[in-house]
Specification:
The protein has five helices and six strands, in the order ααβββββαβαα. The chain is of the alpha+beta class.
Length: 150
């Protein structure tokens, strides 16, 4: 369980009712990653799809995308994106991440159990709509950012 005050300051969960925040905190853990450590991989976790959400709380990450047509890695500039939430593709679609996320120096992330969060959203539609709306806004901002840079 992580401190509820920390969850409240995230863009994804800010403003949700205290009881919802407490529930989310109960299935969220803190993880620390060292410099260069792979946090999420396009290959998933040895064939197992990871449905958890990763919230960057401290530090920096780098996002790399495997360009399948050419088998090349491309570094994505996330400096102007909302870079707080990762793993949303796996959570929403039940697929492996669409990019590799690695730590730069040391970083701390909250890992939200994706199955528990999905269940909470189904059982509490008001909170679910807010969470899904915020994820949609994050994804839309990333798309706009990538389009402007292309």
């Amino acid at each position: 369980m992580v401190p509820t005050a920390e969850l409240k300051r995230t863009d994804l969960f800010n403003g949700l009712d205290d009881d919802i925040i407490e529930t989310i905190a109960s299935f969220t853990s803190l993880a620390e990653f060292s410099d260069g450590e792979v946090i999420l991989s396009e290959d998933g976790n040895k064939g197992v799809v990871i449905r958890d959400l990763y919230l960057l709380m401290e530090g920096d990450v780098i996002v790399k995308k495997n360009m399948a047509d050419y088998n090349l890695w491309k570094k994505l500039d996330i400096s102007t994106m909302n870079n707080e939430v990762f793993g949303e593709v796996g959570w929403l679609l039940g697929e492996n991440p669409s990019a590799e996320v690695s730590s730069v120096k040391n970083c701390k992330m909250f890992i939200v159990d994706g199955e528990e969060l999905f269940s909470l959203c189904e059982n509490n539609p008001e909170a679910g709509v807010i969470i899904f709306y915020r994820l949609a806004a994050i994804l839309a901002a990333r798309l706009v950012n990538r389009t402007k840079k292309s």
